[in-house]
Input
Amino acid sequence: MAEDAKRMDRTVMVVGLSTRADERDVFEFFSGRAGTVKDVQIIRDARTGKSKGVCFVEFSTAEGMVKSLSMTGQTIKGARVQVQQSQVAEGRGTHASRGKF
Output
């Protein structure tokens, strides 16, 4: 669980993402400006596979995450995005993160 907490300190949630944007677009957008991107996960509809306009970006360092927060209002694939610090809501998360399988 300590590793999950550290990971969340390096992760942002991006909302307002264009449905045309893919992981590479997001990776390239943040890499040159905020820091080294470790992972990008676009949230997709389970049935159709289409983007829901939300993604999570994990940086290698907390510094990269902090820098990325200032990028709110910039555009990716023509859509203005909001960058927010990612948080796990109390009582939410995966069963594995709570020690349940």
Remarks:
- Residues 89-101 have pLDDT under 50 and may be disordered.
- The helical segments are 2-8, 23-31, 62-69.
